[in-house]
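go over this record:
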Amino acid sequence: QVDLVESGGDSVQAGGSLTLSCAVSGYRGNCMGWFRQAPGREREGVAAVSSRGPSAYYAESVKGRFTISRDNAGKSLHLHMTYLKPEDTGVYYCAISGETACGRMGVEQYGWWGPGTQVTVSS
């Protein structure tokens, strides 16, 4: 059984920082990613990392502000977010994919998802 559980969501002021964590069990996969969904919008990829190497990928909107990391065993995934903006508000999900094209960050690539954690950034 594959299980992903996010934590760390909170309400912060614009310009603040937050770190999300995801505990993973049952399957390592090839790609580990963070996605987010704002009210009324489609889920979008934020960042992804290979579970077997150092490659990391970011959406243009978060480059230079967010950092994705994982442990070597593929059992935890983190997203360190800085200089947060109101448009970063949404439910953040961690996910696992068996595919190898981690840079694409397509929602359809990922078969295992956590329940999500809410991030709210106020101006």
